[in-house]
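A note from the maintainers: we've had questions about how concatenated examples are separated. There is no special marker in the raw files; a new sequence line simply starts the next protein. For clarity in this README we add a label.
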Amino acid sequence: MNINSRLQSVFAYLPPCVLEAVRSVPQCEQRQLREIRLRLARKLTVTAGDKEYFLSRSGLLTSSADNAVDVTCDDISYICHLAFKESVHSFRSEIINGYVTVKGGSRIGFCGTAVLDVRNSYSVENVKDISCVNIRIAREIKGCADELCKQLFDRRTTSLLIAGPPASGKTTLLRDLTRQLGNAYSTSLIDIRNEIAAVFEGIAQNDVGLMTDIFTGYNRFEGIMTAIRVMSPVYLVCDEIGSDDDLKALEYAVNSGVKLIASCHCSDLAELDSKPVIRRLIKRGAFEKALLLDSGAQCGQIKCICDLSRRGKEKVRC
């Protein structure tokens, strides 16, 4: 599904005034749209490239709010009504997590007033008075992992850690790598935030490979343990590891002989040594290679690749 098709699928969730404005954006600029934001009693904005603009009814992207579309309570209700399929109670976990994945793979995120559960460490048990909605238009860049696959996976299986700062293209690269590995090996994808496969009604909206088994919405521990017990994967893919809760399950995967492909937030490879969970996994031999992505490279541009196989007890250097 190309970006135009994905944008078209988002149109089904837009209230009339917003739809009119977005449709009026010139085609060349529509291809750059990444987000559509509605904030109650404020102005409609869109993100194109790396910048957020106000959007006028005539489709003009501008830094001035003067002629931008006003967002009303009815607009917010319209989107929520469709995103939750007229049944908020059926989407309780999505509401708690703050987003829902819709047909086409795009994500509708929202925030408002949290309702806290005083019996459970004041965790969020619901969200009311939704006041802000962010529609993130799905993007799938097939082929962005081609060179990486040729370099590291052409002749052998390899465990890999993908490191990079926010907006460096980690998930984009990980998605295409999952697709390519999943077309050649039995692969388990632990997609706890549904960002990689974008499953909608049981069907992955993104291509993640013909032999990839998708675990959506599981917590990391349960997803990994179940995958290893029942799917016998060659590769196990996780996005954004690093918490203490991840460690036990990932160590179990390593001890089971599974090859790990994972990503983590990191500004440079040396920083990996300051992350206790990542450092321990490297010392245990969980990853043979690590790569660092350039900041702001949406397609996952590789800055450097580091061999970890001989550096288990050393600080990681590029």
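[label: protein 2]
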Amino acid sequence: MTILVTGGAGFIGSNFVLEWFKDAATSDEAVVNLDALTYAGNAENLSALSGDARHIFVRGDICERALLDHLLSEHRPRAIVHFAAESHVDRSIHGPGVFIKTNVEGTFTLLEAARDYWNTLGGDDKAKFRFHHVSTDEVYGSLKPADPPFAETHPYEPNSPYSASKAASDHLVRAWHHTYDLPVVTTNCSNNYGPYHFPEKLIPLMIVNALAGKPLPVYGDGQQIRDWLYVTDHCSAIRAVLARGRLGETYNVGGWNEKANIDIARTICVLLDELRPDAAGSYTRLITYVKDRPGHDRRYAIDARKIERELGWRPAETFETGIRKTVAWYLEHSDWVGRVQSGAYREWLAKNYEIRQ
């Protein structure tokens, strides 16, 4: 059997593919991995699978309908796991067009290709097929300090071009199920962290900048709160939903770890002080408050009781265990960090943070 994974060279996607082959239940099942290898996609993440016949990597765009039709016809997957997306809020503010193209048009194109392919299947193959859409808690908007966490029934209130594009893709997936009976499941996850995270996001940026002796930019007052989910926990949740989730349902996936951004920065500094002490003093000296980004959501929190109640899933990592593993990974993989920090990446950092000084 085979599954098709889109965006499988990105942060979460590559972790999912690697974990797929580690799991005894799926280790013999092939993965067709479709990724456009944009700035955030990195084939090096998958180097452990070099020469492995179970892993079929294809460089391509989910907006290319002919390519999708060819892959589905040739490999006959039993499921599609859809990670491919533009995902960085700051980039969506500077250039929303690519987010609409990839997240909305790309998801539409993939849904249509999946629908046509699914209609060619018969019997058990058709009954067992799944389209798993991976989304975000950001579609729900922002919470006040005393508000209960986001449940699956929370209204959609996206506040950035990124979250709006993901909300649109969620609605398309829902509509294709209700209109065409396409067998879909959706997961909305909280902020992920862990190995292979591109260093434009908060946690890897703090680690990489601290090690380089650069400022650790914290937006506004640093009291924006997020729920943090270790990436391999997210991967295990996706496998659970793919295997046992009810058709047409949404499952929120969270880590039960609400943390303020400033506390994240300080925690990383304390860990680095322990694991890689700096003769110049504590890394906390590098924390620098910068101008907040437009429309910055104040708080996200995930109510993950549904996935626990229905599927028996809970995260294995606490924030304390997960962040220690993450910092240690970056310390051990400085070569990887150096290679992903291309000229384009440095130009982006200059563009995004110079205006906030």
